[in-house]
């Protein structure tokens, strides 16, 4: 099939690479200009550079809603558009233009975790698996019929970075497998159960701020979800920002006020956690490694030289 590809960052790069290695003919690529947004500098392999290396025409757009793009698409005469990590709304006259419509490749197990940063949100929420879905685009974001979906399990110590590498490897087989079904003449696919749908916003600095009223189990997943190269989960100690680089749920249960720097346990220092921590039934968060405001990385036992005092959400 003749394919126009819409995509950005490493997800789009992997999709384009899969298309270039397939039997299909990539006739044009549309991608976003480079961005300095903190989350868009991560996993930022260039779709434009890869396309240009292969002599494929490239159009740069923030939004695909101008007449020039529409005319270029008509001239390209695609059988299908393939999109992955396109960051803005694609209007119906664009996604419905090709003979077979538009195949969107999304890094979640739709209908759950539509929208943005699905791996991080899924890890924060304790999902047992994550994955990649190829679906046909319609007027509702990430809601079209599922052509192909693959999942991988989430392990008890996995970080968002681990899950990125595991799911990005699914992009090629999911993309080419879905295109194979469409090229073979399949037209009926799996409708999404919209009662199970959830939609998530982009991550921002505020989403990495630690709230010590959360249970320790949730905070431990937040720390793993904000793994390097993502901005770390953070708190404040004596008015200065302190990044929490690694932590585990404490073995013992600790009572008191959330945020209290309480007790050394193993290689960690336990921080009281949970809105009902006063009951003494909660586990704490045993912080094991931190980074100070001036960039020093230290073991928690080295940083917290005395017990007592509090970690807070704000200075």
UniProtKB/TrEMBL annotation:
UniProt xrefs under Gene3D superfamilies: 3.40.50.12230
GO cellular component: cytosol
Record GO terms (molecular function): methionyl-tRNA formyltransferase activity
Pfam families attached to this UniProt entry: Formyl_trans_C, Formyl_trans_N
Residues in Formyl transferase N-terminal domain copies: 1-169
Domain (Formyl transferase C-terminal) ranges: 206-305
Protein name: Methionyl-tRNA formyltransferase
């Amino acid at each position: 099939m003749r394919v126009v590809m819409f995509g950005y960052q490493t997800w789009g790069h992997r999709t384009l690479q899969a298309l270039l290695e397939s039997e299909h003919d990539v006739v044009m690529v549309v991608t976003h200009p480079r961005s300095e947004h903190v989350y868009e500098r991560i996993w930022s392999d260039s779709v434009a550079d890869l396309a240009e290396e292969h002599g494929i025409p490239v159009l740069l757009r923030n939004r695909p809603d101008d007449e020039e793009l529409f005319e270029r698409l008509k001239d390209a005469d695609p059988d299908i558009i393939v999109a992955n990590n396109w960051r803005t709304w694609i209007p119906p006259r664009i996604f419905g233009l090709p003979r077979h419509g538009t195949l969107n490749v999304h890094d979640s197990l739709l209908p759950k975790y539509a929208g943005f940063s699905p791996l991080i949100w899924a890890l924060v929420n304790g999902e047992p698996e994550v994955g990649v879905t190829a679906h046909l685009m319609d007027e509702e974001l990430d809601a079209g019929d599922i052509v192909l979906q693959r999942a991988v399990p989430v392990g008890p110590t996995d970080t968002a970075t681990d899950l990125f590498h595991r799911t990005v490897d699914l992009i090629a087989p999911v993309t080419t497998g879905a295109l194979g079904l469409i090229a073979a003449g399949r037209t009926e696919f799996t409708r999404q159960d919209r009662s199970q749908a959830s939609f998530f916003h982009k991550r921002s600095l505020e989403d990495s701020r630690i709230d010590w009223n959360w249970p320790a189990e949730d905070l431990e997943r937040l720390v793993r979800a904000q793994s390097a190269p993502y901005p770390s989960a953070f708190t404040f100690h004596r008015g200065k920002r302190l990044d929490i680089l690694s932590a585990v749920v404490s073995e013992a249960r600790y009572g008191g006020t959330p945020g209290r720097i309480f007790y050394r346990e193993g290689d960690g220092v336990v921080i009281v956690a949970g809105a009902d921590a006063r009951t003494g039934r909660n586990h704490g968060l045993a912080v094991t490694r931190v980074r100070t405001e001036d960039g020093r990385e230290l073991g928690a036992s080295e940083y917290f030289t005395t017990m007592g005092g509090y970690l807070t959400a704000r200075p």
